[in-house]
Amino acid sequence: MKGLSLFLGCLVPNRYPGIEMATKLCLAKLDIDCIDLPGASCCPAPGVFRSFDRTTWMTLASRNIVLSEKMERDVLTICNGCFSTLEDVNRIIKNDEIAKAEVNAHLQKVDKEIKGKIDVRHIIEYLYEEYGPEKIRSSVERQLKLRVAVHYGCHLIKPTRDRGLGGFERPTFFDELVTAIGATSVEYPDKAACCGAGGGVRSALKESSLKMTEAKLSRIKESEVDCIVNSCPFCHMQLDSGQNEIKEMKGTEFDIPVLHYTQLLGLALGFPPEMLGIDTDIEKNNKLMELLDSQTQNEK
Amino acid sequence: MEEKDADGNRLLENLRDASAGAFKCIQCGICSSSCPSGRHTNLNIRKLVKIAGRTTEILSNEELWMCTTCYNCQERCPRNIDIVDVLLKIRAISVHKGIILPEHREVCQMLIEKGHAVPINDANKEKRIEIGLEELPETVHKYEEGLEEVKKLINSCGFEELIQKKEGTDARGAKT
After folding, report:
1. A152 and A119, same structural domain?
2. Which residues of B touch A54 (CB under 8 A)?
3. Domain boundaries in chain B?
4. Helices (H), chain A
5. How far apart are the first and last CA of chain A?
6. Residue A14 and residue B120: Cβ atoms within 8 Å?
7. Do A76 and A209 reside in the same domain of the chain?
8. Which of A102, B109, B111, B174 is the most exposed place for a label (fewest CB within 10 A)?
9. What is the spatial distance between Cα A62 and Cα B166, in angstroms, rounded to a whole number?
């Protein structure tokens, strides 16, 4: 199996650097061979750019993949959008000689060529398939006895025809990674529903996107969870900042902490919240940390 | 005479090619009942599938942009129509005709200038340093030559010209 290069994308390094730090800390602690991918750009985002022009979308994605091909490493993504773009384009390049030639005609202008020799991975499916919940269970230093609403998001598993990670109606692999750290994955209605951000909807039609978010958050709230855990910084933004935006728009308060899986895993591996970018100045996050601290106290 | 776009493409023919699978539709409505957007917006994906490939009017329909591309409709379609893939192709035809929402133009402009749809800002530079990361990430933000490559490729693909195209109205019917 090849080593990995970490594809950052836009939202993680530029809006949620805590997720970048959490990812690096977790991978190092789990002894997974993953290094930086210098000079990568936006994936580019599937919602807007794939909708606009397939050639531009494929070409810029291919440049990112080439950077990792040169290092002979598979690409590791920590965002469902980046995974969607890079996994889709990588598969197209591997299976469609005409598309590959078209892309390479552009890449030639920057002295690059895509070969289609590596794979694109998402940290959730990678941890599940290559590392495994059992090994995670044995690496945990701090049991997190939390009630968690797992949000898979859309593009980690769909289209299922292309992703090959099983059906989308009742997937379990992400839940298994959550239960591996001592938490309970709580079933809730509309678990498979979209956060509302994708497809360029958040950027152009924010109010509509937030209506979907509000519906999702309402179902989660009814299920009385301690936090939401996601696999994508765009879902993360929509479910987290979305709570503030909904409060401003309609006055509805949800107060549900939102963590990327790498942040939850980071806590379980013993890292303090501030290293993982979990802002404890925010009251709901502070409460969550107090809950965890009281659990640790009780165990002593 | 058949309507053509600025590049002389036959719009209806392109739409028909893009929507080929949609003709299998039996209008059962499973797509609409699976659509998280349709519960809250005007998006009626069943109707869009019905008119896909049959009229150029679909190109200026704002509903095209209300889809979050969650793929629920496509996954559940009993006729195996690749609904989201069809919708994305129709979006692209619309964009190539110059119908682009202003917010999407801005996102594209970010990519063209910075190589990131969401570029770094001062607050997040500070946040990065606070948690022990470098001020700039290992992306084109830090590597100027990488950004130059991205710009060359964008130019090679004609992307900037594409997003500057203006038909006169956007998908909301507003003047551009």
Report:
1. no
2. 92
3. 11-96, 102-164
4. 11-14, 17-29, 51-52, 54-70, 80-95, 97-107, 123-126, 133-139, 160-163, 173-179, 201-204, 206-222, 233-250, 261-268, 283-299
5. 41
6. yes
7. no
8. B174
9. 28
Which CATH number do you get for residue A95? 1.20.1050.140
Nearest CB neighbour to B153, from listed A20, A110, A193: A110
pTM score of the predicted model: 0.96
The CATH number of residue A212's host domain is 3.40.50.11810
Any CB–CB contact under 8 A between A207 and chain B?
no
CB contacts, 8 Å: A110 with chain B: 149, 152-153
Residues A118 and A150 in one domain: no
Contact check, Cβ <8 Å, B140/A50: no
Residues 20-49 of A with CB under 8 A from B: 20-21, 36-42, 44-49
Distance CA A252, CA A254 (A): 7
Please give the ipTM for the structure prediction: 0.95
| pLDDT at residue A213, rounded to an integer | 98
The CATH architecture one would assign to domain B11-96 is: Orthogonal Bundle (1.10)
CB A8 within 8 A of CB A20: yes
pLDDT tens per residue, range A51-101: 999 999 999 999 999 999 999 999 999 999 999 999 999 999 999 999 999
Q: Say whether both A107 and A147 belong to one domain.
A: no
